[in-house]
Amino acid sequence: MRLEAALRDRRASGRSLLVPYVTGGLGSGWLDVVRAVADAGADAIEIGIPFSDPVIDGRTVQEASQRALELGATPASIISDAARLDVEVPLVVMTYFNPVQHMGFERFAKELVEAGIDGAIVPDLPLDELGDWSSAADAAGVETVLLAAPTTPDTRLRAICERSRGFVYGVSLMGVTGERTRLADQASVMGSRCKALTDRPVLLGVGISTAEQAVEAASFADGVVVGSALVRRLLEGGGPEQAGAFVASLRAALDDREGERG
Amino acid sequence: MTASARGLGVQLAPPGSEPAGLGRFGEYGGRFVPETLVPALEELEREFRSAWSSEEFRAELAGLLASYAGRPTPVTECHRLSERLGVRVLLKREDLTHTGSHKINNVLGQALLTRRMGKQRVIAETGAGQHGVATATAAALFGLECLVFMGAVDVERQALNVFRMRLLGAEVVPVESGSATLKDAINEALRDWVATVETTHYCIGSVVGPHPYPWMVREFQRVVGDEAREQCRALLGGTDPDVVLACVGGGSNAIGTFAGFIDLPGVRLVGVEAGGRGLESGQHGSSVSRGVPGVLHGARSLFLQDEHGQILEAHSISAGLDYPGVGPEHAELAAAGRAEYANATDEEALEGFELLARTEGIVPALEPAHAIAWLAREAGRSIPKGATVLVTLSGRGDKDAEQVAERLGYDSFR
Predict the structure, then answer these.
(1) Which residues contact A139 (CB under 8 A, 6 or more apart)?
(2) Which of A119, B112, B186, B382 gets the most CB atoms within 10 Å of its CB?
(3) Which residues of B touch A98 (CB under 8 A)?
(4) Shortest distance, CA A2 to any CA of chain B (angstroms)
(5) Using one digit for the tens of pLDDT, what is the confidence trace for A10-43?
(6) Can you list the domains of chain A with their CATH numbers?
(7) Domain count, chain B
(8) Are B295 and A101 within 8 A, CB to CB?
């Protein structure tokens, strides 16, 4: 339980958690992007394994996925590349169910563990369909992070919070991933509903694009996931330096908030 | 068991068998969707189950199918084609429904459910445009806002249907991502739905998607097979056809047709998929023949994919069969050996298109032209001479006229 343990420790130290998302295989330097993001103060890092039909992703992650696939990225190549990372923070893959089931549950889980990856987020695999994957993941020690949505009713939300491992991923709006001009109204409700039901770390994600939005969202939960805003910078030609600078700016804003609150 | 619901000559049979568990047909089916959509699918499942077991609901739908959609559709005996092929050919004429294809059967059912759930907006995906036109039609009839996602390639090759949808008051959104065909239109519809699910019903047009869609759409399309079975018996002196044939993209007209005959073990059920430029070319839509198990668009089924689990682009001359997957119940029928799945190429489909036009004066859509083409190839081979074959003619060919004219070199189309 390295992912959850690490997030709990960092939360206990009083900081808001920051989990950036990087599309795996997006350019030959993507491992350096992950390293830069880790150095800039991430508490864990999501590595996207691209899928041809990413239905909960907006244009930015769609484009990044397509570009990575065109560059030859495969689930196996991303996982084996990631094995070369020596970052301090836990890693968690985010992908869709088809590549996972295509590789085979046990093999996918085993390859993650061997690469030093602690968790998996599979957004089209809801609670009711976890079955065979979660058995394989649990047996291998892979923490499966579940998503909770604004539409999730209370009894189901309780079950999701109980079954999730690593953290609970609260979807902060109705819609697909992508930058927004302001934080959605649903974010505060989503964060408080999850927090009321679980002691597990609760992170809000989807549509959190700026330092200001991250700070606001973090006030309703234990932290945030930031994806499209970072990936856009990479699509626009940014590399490790730009990625690191952006994540550092989020880190600083979140830490300032702690300072002010303290 | 409740009785059949009657409405002006249309009878809807009592509910058929439900899939097991969470929408399982054998190992296929299920509900693999983002958490945001789960509560809406649970609601839809509850509403459908309750509505479908209500005679009042089925009678209302039967009435609409009769007075608005023009059901029951006839079964036509094809004398000249039969003589040509040496087998007795019967056509189930879904081309004669309002809007010109079987899609209207499902859409009227889902429109009634939309009203029942108190939703004011419907979205749909469309390939050939027939489902989009049907949805736009029902939306106009029920006063619903309607948005149709259509691959940009299909917008181009099915321009007539795009105009029809706009005329009916629907907004058509061309989808540029991926292969810009049906698969990508479904992706984009799902993305819209994730944002709008509280006020919007997603009217899926085939027996694909998460539970309860494959089951619900099959039940709404069963009227095709149930009618045909009785009509065949009337024509054939109380006996059943030897072979029942339908084209398969996602597979809704086929599953609806098969449903009427599935409990008759002596009836050979055949689904004809798009052979495109030939299976060996890799450019086709034959998901049962060449697909492998996977999960896309909410269900586990057979999909064309590469060695890493990335979905491949399908190819077919017909937009309605240009889909790299198939409904989960078809995957199970194939696994169980109850139905067989064949294919016809683009070229063969064009020949089937002309053949039916010239022998019977019926211009089929390019989709069922695949079924006609397979019949023409197999008559006297795997279909013995003298056998009786029912083919579901899922739609009419007006929408394809321009495309076929170009392919066949009719230079004076305009």
Answers:
(1) A106, A109
(2) B186
(3) 294-296, 303, 305, 309, 311
(4) 25
(5) 999 999 999 999 999 999 999 999 999 999 999 9
(6) 16-256 (3.20.20.70)
(7) 1
(8) yes
